[in-house]
Amino acid sequence: MHGADPRLVLGLHRSRHHRDILTTALDLGVTALDTAAPYLGFRSHAVLAETAADLLPKFTLSTKVGFFPSAGEAEHSLDPSRLRLAIEQAARELGREPDTVLLHNPERSLTGLSPADGQALLGSACTALVDAARDGLCRTWGVSSWDTQPLGVVGVHGLPSPDILMVRAGFLVGIDLLHTTAVLRNLWQSGETWGMSPFGGGNAKVWEDFDPRPFLRSPHDGLSCVQAAFRAAFHLPTAAAVAVGTDDLAHLAQLVQALGAEVDTTAISQYLRALHGLRQS
Questions:
Q1: Which sequence spans correspond to the domains of the chain?
Q2: Model's pTM, two decimal places?
Q3: Which of 164, 198, 201, 268 has a 20 to 30 A CA-CA distance from 229?
């Protein structure tokens, strides 16, 4: 049994939500679980409660709101009243209040708006989550953004500061997005940063062609390229936690093992400077 390590968040995007991945996670010391209202065809919360109600209290649980079912598909909305109802529904379906509620990809509703209109819409959505936390529907709140650039365009000055900002992380994140994220979290004065999608959506072939192990300090105990990519993702950008989804029990164990590796931050800094140089050339 490993000690609990909240740095690895087990994400349920594309997961089958089988009980064995949850029990294995707990055995490995992974006690943070991340889901979202639309996962598993908008059934994630209910399925978790049906298959693992006894396990959920053992996890720090985060979920996301912002997508809603519509004619068999999903539509995005930042309407405060809809967000509030979604948070209340999540608590009912889960059988418990989530520890954290994240605003799910707010850029989906911001693209195309003027900066003033976008900021007003984002501000009202953030306020809805602030109110939910104040009313005990969650402990903390935050924003999960796949593309932070529209948020940078509308601006976040004067808006409520999220406790958590979840963004894409890892070697497959472009320098423009890394730069926008850095500016955004500095202006927003957000709390923790969480990374997500450290493998770029499961593109395994990348790690056959690119070896990220030089970004770890030697010796790195024979870790694989995938393990090295995951560990380095905590610095691209700097993040307190990284969410990763898997139904492969062995893969999850390998990622937990990778947490013990030490990243060569000098090599990471050199890599980022090189990317900035290419961006400016």
A1: 35-280
A2: 0.94
A3: 164
Report d(CA 141, CA 146) in Å as an integer: 17
* 113: its two tokens: 């708006």
Q: Please report how many Cα atoms fall inside a 13 Å half-sphere around the Cα of residue 209, on the Cβ side.
A: 6
Average pLDDT over residues 169-196: 93
Ranges assigned E (strand) in 221-261: 241-245
Peptide bond into 219 cis (omega under 30): yes
Cα 242 to Cα 193: distance, rounded to the nearest angstrom: 9
Cβ density class 6-22: b for 16+ within 10 Å, e for less: eebbbbbbebebeeebb
CB 201 within 8 A of CB 170: no
Class of CATH domain 35-280: alpha beta
Confidence label for 6 from pLDDT (cuts 50, 70 and 90): very low
